Amino acid sequence: MRTIFFDVDTQIDFLYPAGALYVPGAEQIVRNVGRLNHFAASNGFPLISDTDAHSENDPEFHDWPAHCVAGTVGQAKPQATLLDQRVVVSSKAGLDVWPAGAHQMLLEKQSLDVFSNPRLPGLLESIGAERFVVYGVVTEICVRCAAWGLIRTGKRVELVMDAIRHLNEPDARAMMAEFETAGGVLVTTGSILV
User: How far is CA 152 from the centre of its chain?
Assistant: First the structure.
């Protein structure tokens, strides 16, 4: 079964207390995110790591504090989540197929939904995935957008429960219940790394 690992918004501004839009407790998932990312590479699974890449006056900052401004420390991913063979794909111009030799694609976006990057549908089609393994932050916001977009492909979508973090627990629980009802599968890091 062709699998794609999907690492959502695991960036410094979200993951650590000094970050501009810190998700409480998110630093606790960094180890599992790193383990999942490296497992993907060692088993030949493509890894899409979507990343916010905002401009200094991004429209999203009307609703959220400024965060993940392109080129800042806060926009970067922790070293533990990065693979050596990686490529950055802008939402404005870039690849529509998976590049030869790349293990990790840093897919930039400027809105909550990774599917706002027009490159994503073509990339998914070029890979021909039958299964998606999803994790990251924030469960009820950006992870939700990624998960629902992937569910709409009609393929198997798994959400790694010990590699996600939320801002609002009731909303996160509701999202997970809806996800399961839609055919999504809740898993753990341990069940993936077998």
Answer: 17
Q: How far apart are CA 5 and CA 144, in angstroms?
A: 15
Q: Are 3 and 131 in contact (CB under 8 A)?
A: yes
Closest CA to 137 of 4, 5, 7, 34: 7
**50 and 109 Cβ atoms separated by less than 8 Å:** yes
Average pLDDT over residues 99-118: 90
DSSP for 31-73, please give it.
Answer: HHHHHHHHHHHHTT--EEEEEE-B-TT-GGGGTS----BTTSG
Which pLDDT band, with edges at 50, 70 and 90, does 96 fall under? low
138-151 confidence digits (pLDDT tens)? 999 999 999 999 99
Q: Residue 186 has what pLDDT?
A: 98
Helix axes of 144-151 and 169-181: crossing angle, nearest 10 degrees: 10
Residue 168: how many CB atoms within 10 A of its CB?
A: 13
